[in-house]
Specification:
By secondary structure, this protein is mainly beta. The protein has a single domain (2-78), classed as Beta-grasp domain (Ubiquitin-like (UB roll), Roll), CATH 3.10.20.30. It contains 1 helix and 5 strands. A hairpin with a 2-residue loop joins strand 3 (50-53) and strand 4 (56-57). The longest helix has 7 residues, at 34-40. The chain is globular, with a radius of gyration of 12 Å.
Length: 84
C-alpha cells in the first residue's frame, strides 16, 4: 500500500533524491509499524522525536504497533528541537 512519508528540519537528508517538499510516496507492507517505516530511511530512533500520522501524535511505545497505517496516510517526523 502507498503512504506519504515526510521528514522535516535536520532529518530531510534521509529522504531519497526524488523527494518533493520534504515528502516521498512509499510502498509499505499493510502491517508495517511506524518504526519499520522510519527505520527503512535510516532515521535514528532517538532523532524521530515528533511522529504524526495524519496529524495524530504517536508516542515512542506506540510506534511498534502493526496496522496503524492505512492506504493514503501521511507519516511525518520531526527531530527534537533545541533552543530557548
Amino acid at each position: 500500500m502507498k503512504i506519504t512519508f515526510k521528514l522535516y528540519a535536520t532529518l530531510q537528508g534521509h529522504l531519497p533524491a526524488n523527494a518533493v517538499n520534504n515528502a516521498v510516496e512509499v510502498d509499505i507492507e499493510p502491517q508495517a509499524t511506524l518504526h519499520q517505516v522510519i527505520d527503512s530511511f535510516r532515521v535514528p530512533r532517538k532523532d524521530a522525536h515528533l511522529v504524526l500520522v495524519n496529524g495524530t501524535y504517536f508516542g515512542f511505545d506506540d510506534r511498534d504497533d502493526a496496522g496503524v497505517l492505512k492506504e493514503g496516510d501521511v507519516l511525518a517526523v520531526w527531530p527534537p528541537v533545541a533552543g530557548g
